[in-house]
Amino acid sequence: MTELDTSARPLPPPSPADERDQDVLRALWRCFRRAAQGRAGARCFLFPCHFVGDDGDITLTVINSVEQYLAEIIKPLFRGYRQLGVASGRIRDLQVRFLSPRLRHATILWDVLDGHGAVLFSHEAAYALALGASDWRICAIAYHEMREIKALLASMPSR
Question: Where are the beta strands (DSSP E) in the chain?
Fold first, then answer.
């Protein structure tokens, strides 16, 4: 994946009830853009951060550093992206739920696009965010994106 499509869909405008969650949305957007550029920063996460994935098996990975995140989560993900010809991604739907003054739950429906802008697949991911000393940080992610990637790769003719 070479970029996150920020021009096709900017952050959705807040409804009056969701005005307080704009900082949450900005924090997520900053993290996604950095991850797409391969430079996720420590400010994105509250470590240890839990990743629960369904790639055919349920996996729980506890991430303790940015370096571990890049090696164990992003590297395999981007390897699959390259094999599929993924060029970008966009947010089709995003919802933030208030859990407490310092906790939020965000659910995002992602479209993963090829170089022509066609949707290769869509997937949903859930993010738990906690308000740290000064900003929102991801403390857990549940996703099934690798399952979608594996299924698409398995359906492709051998190269």
Answer: 3-4, 45-54, 58-63, 86-100, 103-114, 119-131, 136-143
Looking at 101-133, which runs of residues are DSSP E strands?
103-114, 119-131
- Per residue in 50-67, pLDDT (tens digit) is 999 998 899 999 999 888
Fold of 3-8+17-155: Nuclear Transport Factor 2; Chain: A, (3.10.450)
Phi, psi of 147 (to 5 degrees): -65, -45
Query: Using CA atoms, how far apart are residues 37 and 100, in angstroms rounded to an integer?
Result: 31
Q: What sign for the dihedral angle of Cα 62, 150, 39, 143?
A: negative
Residue in the block written with tokens 């940015």: 66
Sign of CA dihedral 124, 125, 131, 136: negative
The strand pairing partners of 88, in sequence order, are: 3, 113
